[in-house]
Amino acid sequence: MLLTVATATILFLFPIAQEVGADEDKTHAPPPVAIDGLTGVPIDISTLVASVVFHLDTRTAVVNADLTFEMTADGMPVFDLRQEIVSGTLNGVEISPAQMAAHDLGPASGTIRILEAELKAGATHTLHLEYELQKPQSPQSIAIGWGKGRLDWDFFFSDLNQGRYMEMWFPSNLIYDHFGFQLDLQLEGALAPHEIVTNATVQKLGDFHWQLSFPAHFTAFSHMLVVVPSEKIERSTATAIMPGGKKISVDVCRLKDTNTSNKTIHKRVAEEMIRFSKSTGAWPHGNRCTVFVWSGGRSMEYDGATTTSMGALSHELHHSWYGRGVKPRSQNDGWFDEAWTTFAADGFRMSSAKLGEEGTKRTLCSDNPWNRTTSGDSYRPGGAAFHRIADAIGEKKLMGLMAKFFAKYQLKTASTQEMEAFLFEATKNPAVKQVFHRYIYGLDGSWKDSDASKKE
Questions:
Q1: Does residue 117 sit in helix, strand or coil?
Q2: Is 267 left (phi over 0), alpha (psi -120 to 50) or beta?
Q3: 3-state class of 89 per DSSP?
Q4: Which of 54, 146, 148, 189 could form a disulfide with 59 if both were Cys (CB 3.0 to 4.6 A apart)?
C-alpha cells in the first residue's frame, strides 16, 4: 500500500491534472447586480499574477497583483479583495482606491468591489493593485502569524462564511471562474528555515524565495498554501498505489505537537484514497496529494490537498472527489459536496423512523445568484436528503450514479439543477424530484406543482 516513507529534505512537487473548464466561465457567471446606484457586471479572469514580500523584521507584507480579465457584458467590473487597496491602475491608467469601493449585498453575500469604469466586453483588461497584506476583512478570518524572524501563514479558506476564499489575500472572483495564478513569495529577515506546503508547483528561487504556479482549472477555493517554520513540523513523502496501479506521491506535513505519527497519516491517507477511488473514480488530481495535519477542529479541503485534523481526514480527502473534484458552480451548489461527503464518506444515515416520516423542509440551495455562504444544514440534513434518495432508488444505484456524475464533471463545475436532472433522468423516480423540492430547495407541497416542473 505504502511503498516508501522518507523525510523530505527538498521541496519537490508534481504536476496537477489537465486544465479544463475555462471556456464556460462567462455563461456560468451570475447576472449583473445593481447596488448603491451602480450596476456591477461579473468578469472572467484569465490570469492572476502576484508577488508578496514579507518583511519579518518590520512585520509588514507588500503585495503587487495583476488581474487580467474580460467582461461578461459591457459595464462596470465586479471583483473582490478583502484587503485595503493603496493604489492601482486599470490598463496602465491610474485609478483611485475610491473607484474600487466595497458594496454590501447582505449577510449571505457580504461585500463585493465594483470598479467604477465602463468597460467593453470582448477586450482584455488588466487591473494592477498594490496593498499591504493584513488580517482579511472577512468573517472569522485569522491574522498572519508574525514571530521573531519567523512566519506562520495559512490561506485558511472556509465555505461557511462569505469572503473566505482567495479574495481574502489576492484579488479574485466567485467560484464559477477558473483561472491560473502565479505567485512570487519572498521572506526577508528570516532567522530560520521555512517550509512551503501547497498544491501548487513550486520553483525555489533562493533560500527564502519561491515561485508558485497554480493551474488554470483552479477556482477561487482551490488553492492551498501554508508557510511554516521548518522546526515546527515533520515532513515526509510516500507513494500510495491506487487501484489499477497508479502511483500517487503523498506529501505529509505534521505539526510536531500533533498526537500521531507521519507513518500513521500516510497509512490512513492511502487507505482512504483507495476506498474513494473504488467507490467514485480514479484520483483526479494528477500524481500527487498534499496533506497538512494539526490538532483541533479546523479543517479545510483544497484541490488534491487538505489542512486537517486526524478526525476529519477521511472527510477532507473525499472532497478531492466531491467539492474539489466535481466543483460547485456557485455557493448555492456548495451544499452537495458537504452532503454527499457526509453520506458517502462519513457514513451518516437517518434512523428508519426518521426516514419514514416527512421531515422539516430545508433550503440548502438558495435562489440568490450572489449567495456566497454554504448552509450549515448541508452536512447532516444534506446527508439525510441523499439517504432519502438512496431509500427510494437503492443505495448501490445511487453510489453508482454519483460515480458517473463525478466522471462527467471532474475538475469542472456543476450545478444543483444539473445533479437533479442527472439523477432523475437515470432513474425516472419522482421521489428524486420531491427530495430536491423539499429538502434542498426548501419548498412546500409537491414538486409537480412547482414552476420548474410546469416548464418541463
A1: coil
A2: alpha
A3: strand
A4: 146
For 260-264, which contacts have Cβ atoms below 8 Å and span 24 or more sequence positions?
260/293, 260/310, 262/5, 262/234, 262/235, 262/236, 263/5
| Residue 166: all three cell numbers together | 482567495
Contact 197, 177 (CB under 8 A): no
- Partners of 249 in beta bridges: 239, 288
CB-CB contact of 153 with 144 (8 Å)? yes
User: What confidence category does residue 329 fall into, taking pLDDT thresholds of 50, 70 and 90?
Assistant: very high
What's the chain's average pLDDT? 93
Q: Nearest to residue 77, comparing CAs of 44, 38, 110, 115?
A: 115
Quick one: pLDDT at residue 296? Answer: 84
Classify residue 289 by burial, with Cβ atoms within 10 Å: 0-12, 13-18, 19+.
buried
Assign 32 a pLDDT band (cuts: 50, 70, 90).
very high
| CA 335 to the chain's CA centroid | 13
Asked whether 177 and 78 are in contact (CB, 8 A), the reply is no
pLDDT score at 455 = 52
- Name the helix (H) or strand (E) containing 316: helix 313-318
Closest CA to 100 of 156, 54, 43, 49: 43
CB crowding 247-264: b at 16 or more within 10 Å, else e: ebbbbbbbeeebeeebee
CA-to-CA distance for 400 and 26, rounded, in angstroms?
A: 31
Quickly count: other Cβ atoms within 10 Å of residue 394's Cβ: 13
Q: How many CA atoms lie within 13 A of 168 on its CB side?
A: 25
Q: Is 411 left (phi over 0), alpha (psi -120 to 50) or beta?
A: left
- Helices 395-409 & 335-344 angle (0-180, nearest 10): 140
For 24-28, 185-189, 237-241, 435-439, which range has the lowest pLDDT when averaged over its residues?
Answer: 24-28
Please, what are the domains in the chain?
Answer: 22-223 (2.60.40.1730), 233-318 (3.30.2010.30), 327-455 (1.10.390.10)
Please state the φ and ψ torsions of residue 305, each to the nearest 5 degrees: -160, 165
Reduced to 3 states, what is the DSSP secondary structure of residue 311? coil
CA dihedral sign of residues 275, 277, 281, 284: positive
Classified as helix, coil or strand, 97 is helix
